[in-house]
Structures are given as structure tokens and as C-alpha cells.
Amino acid sequence: MNKKIFIAYSGGLDSHVLLRLLVQVRKVNPKLQLTAIHVNHNLSSNAKRWTEHCKKICRELRVACIVKNVNAKIKIKDHSPEEIARKLRYETFAETLPKNSVLVTAHQANDQAETLLLQLFRGAGPKGLAAMPLKIKFAKGWLVRPLLDFSREELLQYAKVQKLNWIEDESNTDTKFDRNLIRHKLMPIIKKNWPGIITTLNRVANHCAAASELLENLAAEDLADVISAKDTINIEVLKKLSSARQDNVLRFWLRTLHLSTPSEVKLHEVIRTVVNSRSDASPMVGWQGTEIRRFQNHLYAMPPLLPHDKRKVLRFNFKRPLKLPADLGVLRAKVNKKFVASAKNKIFTVRFRQGGEKLKIAKRLGTHQLKKLMQEWQIPPWLRDRIPLIYCGAEIVAVVGYYSVAGLLTTILNNPSSRKILA
Asked: Environment class of residue 147 by beta-carbon count within 10 Å: exposed (0-12), middle (13-18) or buried (19+)?
């Protein structure tokens, strides 16, 4: 067992039971270091009182307590208040946890059943219906849910026997939230006819988790066949797969790139308008956080490209890194003494393609149009105006990532929007 355990502690019934159980474990394992993390979302007028309650309980149990404040009243497009609060809460946990630590949460069997129904109503596949795993990698360590095999009723019984004092969040009874609607309206009706429904739904979640694992393994095998240089997908190889396997491997590919996965409608749009487009077309399908484009016979996935003013001219001093506009990354360059001597008294700038540029290429006669060189280098069209060009006076001495004169070495760092192209 990891000696440092962090508990997601709201002060409610479930997290209080979890905290108390871990304190009992510490009695037989004194080296166990427990730290509670309480996130104040600042949504309730009682929030400060709940924070003081959590700090008081932790003092009584001799457990370190970290309190973090977030503003969950902010609005994010296409996110419910529940989703926003959850997002901020887990971001806070991730920022707080040290390396190789374990975060434990108090999710129990009823939570698992409710999550499965929520995902079912949203039209989720096996991965979504697998609901919450017992243990997953999280931030720099792990997230563990040790109470998933216990029902809310069992935790309540334990809390009453132990005479625990917990808080009741009034929002937990507000049925305008989807989970509360399921918990307080739908579940009581279902339980009348199927008393063991919580156990049954948890069993369904386990079946879906097993199915999801098999699909992940198949996707990993298929990805090894369809993946090309720079994490792109070879379309001709992809088309040899069945439609179901195409869907499966594309979702898996996006997850490996840490990009958001699409809805079924969007995924089918990708297949129809991007995968099955003409080889000389440059279609794009996008959704929140992700764009998929086609160039020649390959699929490219990336975060949405930011607006970019290609007319910008930036002074460049080789001694310091240069932050590029439109999230294109940080430019660094190394030069040898011979190159510096040949460029004495000349100004170095970074610019972007306007059209009509020409440059000389070592060991090739004459000058060459940059447009044709970019075609030769197979640079995707949407990136051609975003490739940094280093000028020495009026002469191009580097096309970053593709060409530079002798004695000049360029690199791009922290380049999310085109990292697979310029790196």
C-alpha cells in the first residue's frame, strides 16, 4: 500500500465514512499518512460552514486537511453546472497531488448505478457504460474508489452505528440536476419492481468494462497497422477495416493524442466527408477541442487552429527563445561562429509566408519558389502560412522544421497546434 493517501473529502456521508475507515486502517498501519482535500465550490451559502466542519473533523481524527477554493459559478459553453463543478474539483485534485500519490474517492455502488444510467441516457457505448473503474491513473499518480462494492444504504448504516456527524448538501435533493432526478425520482420506482437493481446495474457496468477492454486491445492492434509518420492515419489502410473497427480505432487514436472524442454523428461525418473525400481535397470536421483534416492520403488530428496574422514580423535574437503567435510554440536556434560572422550587422526576423517568396537551397541550382518547396516537402495546406521563416535581412535562411542554411539549427518547443508537423 502507498504510504501517502489523499482523500477527496466533501464532509458528506460517503466521504466521512471513507475518512473514518482509513483512520481505522491507520491504527494497524501507523506509517500510513492521511491527508484530506476539501474543495469549496463557493456555490452554497453554507460553503464556509462546511469547510469549518471538515477542518474540525480532520483535527479530531488527526488527519491533515488541505482546503482549496474554486469559483464554480463560472459558465462554460455546453457544460452543465454539475460538469463545471466536477471539472474544477478534479483539476484542483490534480494540481494538489504530489508525484506517485494516491487519491481515494468515496464513490459507492449507488453512484456507479446512477452513472451507468446517465451514460445510457446519453447514448454512450461500452466505454461510457463501464462507468467508474476501481483504479485508474490520475495526474501524477492513481485514483482509487475503494467503496464501489458497498451501497449507500450500507454506508448510512455504518455511519449511524459509529454516530458520525456529516453535512447534508442541499443541492443533493435538487432534481433539476440529472443525477438527483435519477436518484430521487427514477430509482425509487425501479426498485419497487427490481429490488436488486443496484447490484444488477453494477454487474452490467463490469460487463461493459470487460467489453471495453477487449475493444481497446483490438483498437491498439488496428492502430499499429493504420498509423503513419507524425501520428497520422493512412486512409487506404483504414478503409480496409470494417466500419465498426474504423470507428473504434479512430476514437482510440484521438485518445492517444489526448484529444476529445466525437459524438457518433460527428464521427460518421468524419468518415463520410473526410475519409471518403477525394484524395486532392482538404476537408475538415471539428468539435470542441479537436479538428480532423485530410491531406493527400492521411488523416491529421489536432486542437483547433487559432486565428493567425501571417503579416506579423518579429525581431529574433538567437540568444533568447522567441514565443510565436497563435500558439505555434517557442522558437529556439543555435548558430555557429562562422554563420554569425557571415551575417554581421544584419537584422534577423521571423515572418510567415505571404506568397511569392523564393530561396536558395544548398547543392541545388538557382532559386526556388517557397510554394513549390512546401508542396515538395508535403506540408499540409493549413500549416503553410504558419511555418516560421527566419530572415537574415531580406534573405530566407531557414524554413523552420524543413530547411536551414549551414551553421543554423532551429527547433520548435511546446507546440500544441502543429507539434506533429514542426517538431
From this structure: buried
Grid cell, residue 375, equals 508542396
- Rounded to two decimals, the pTM is 0.81
Secondary structure of residue 188 in the 3-state scheme: helix
Give yes or no for residue 130 having a pLDDT over 60: yes
Q: What is the distance between the alpha carbons of residues 130 and 116, in angstroms, rounded to a whole number?
A: 7
Identify the CA nearest to 324 among candidates 303, 377, 316.
Answer: 316
> Is the confidence at residue 417, as pLDDT, over 80?
no
User: How many other CB atoms sit within 10 Å of the CB of residue 119?
Assistant: 18
Same domain, 257 and 325: no
DSSP 3-state of 209? helix
Q: What is the pLDDT of residues 216-261, one digit of tens each?
A: 999 999 999 999 988 999 999 999 999 999 999 999 999 999 999 9
- SS3 sequence of 7-51: EECCCCHHHHHHHHHHHHHHHHCCCCEEEEEEEECCCCCCHHHHH
Instruction: Please give the backbone phi and psi of residue 144, each rounded to the nearest 5 degrees, phi first.
Output: -125, 140
Q: Residues 393, 267: one domain? A: no
Indicate if 408 and 337 belong to the same structural domain: yes
The identity of residue 61, as a single letter, is: L
- The domain tally of the chain equals 3
Do the beta carbons of residue 307 and residue 382 sit within 8 Å?
A: no
